[in-house]
Inverse folding.
């Protein structure tokens, strides 16, 4: 159900600090919400880890809890020095992983 | 009619009544929500008991959040982000949500800047903390207050 979207500049200058924007469709069920019909708590189901890699180097990662909004948006930066590929991994606490990739040309 | 009824309650009775219901409300919300004490306990666990210094880390949130389900939040730390001196992590801590820990961002010198944006849930009006750890092991804290019109943690 999850669908990821990432925004990475296509080109950058060597040494430039670029901003990356990511978004994934996920309900981020916090475990604090009640089912309106049964009155029972809806079990927690969230993405608990996000990782960003640049040419294989893990340069930014995050631990998320139920306090992160549904369809989590996350933006951060990376200092680029050569062309290559970004990889983004969202880890769901049920063990599923969603990935997205983006290429960058560094001149 | 109801207006008239309110008028005949004298100030003392009103205050006692208001005090009692405020106490009940506080007791109820304690069940569902973290308290500043729980946030402080989480902070102590995070830093291993070290008291973070004020400054160096900034937390930007809207003054008034109309929708507590999705509150745009930006954290940043003042750091050169070199191999020798960089910001390792920034955690966002709530003082009134069901759980104090909202999220933690981890940075490396490759990040270039210690800055991240995210959208968070705010159960009610509260103080929020951003706590950063630098590569030298020092901890810093920045605080802000968000007024929440409609809470965002479900009920």
């Amino acid at each position: 159900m999850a669908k990821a979207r990432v925004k990475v500049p296509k080109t950058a200058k060597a040494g430039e600090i670029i901003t990356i924007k990511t978004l994934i469709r996920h309900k981020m069920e916090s475990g604090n919400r009640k089912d309106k019909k049964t009155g029972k708590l809806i079990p927690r189901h969230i993405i608990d880890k996000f990782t960003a890699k640049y040419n294989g180097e893990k340069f930014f990662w995050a631990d998320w809890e139920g306090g992160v909004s549904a369809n989590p948006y996350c933006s951060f930066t990376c200092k680029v020095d050569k062309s290559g590929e970004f990889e983004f991994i969202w880890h769901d606490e049920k063990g599923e992983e969603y990935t997205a990739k983006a290429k960058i040309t560094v001149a | 009619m109801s207006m008239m009824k309110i008028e005949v309650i004298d100030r003392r009775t009103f205050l006692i009544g208001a005090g009692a219901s405020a106490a009940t409300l506080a007791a109820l919300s304690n069940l569902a929500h973290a308290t500043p004490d729980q946030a402080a306990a989480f902070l102590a666990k995070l830093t291993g008991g070290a008291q973070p210094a004020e400054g160096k880390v900034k937390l930007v949130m809207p003054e008034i959040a109309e929708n507590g389900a999705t509150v745009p939040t930006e954290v940043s730390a003042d750091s050169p982000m070199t191999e020798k001196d960089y910001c390792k992590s920034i955690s966002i801590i709530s003082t009134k949500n069901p759980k104090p820990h909202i999220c933690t961002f981890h940075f490396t010198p490759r990040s270039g800047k210690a800055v991240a944006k995210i959208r968070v849930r705010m159960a009610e009006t509260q103080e929020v903390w951003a706590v950063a750890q630098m590569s030298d092991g020092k901890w810093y804290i920045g605080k802000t207050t968000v007024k929440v019109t409609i809470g965002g943690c479900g009920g």
Remarks:
- The interface with chain B takes residues 17-18, 30, 32-34, 54, 57-70, 72-79 of chain A (CB under 8 Å).
- The CA atoms of residues 80 and 100 of chain A lie 18 Å apart.
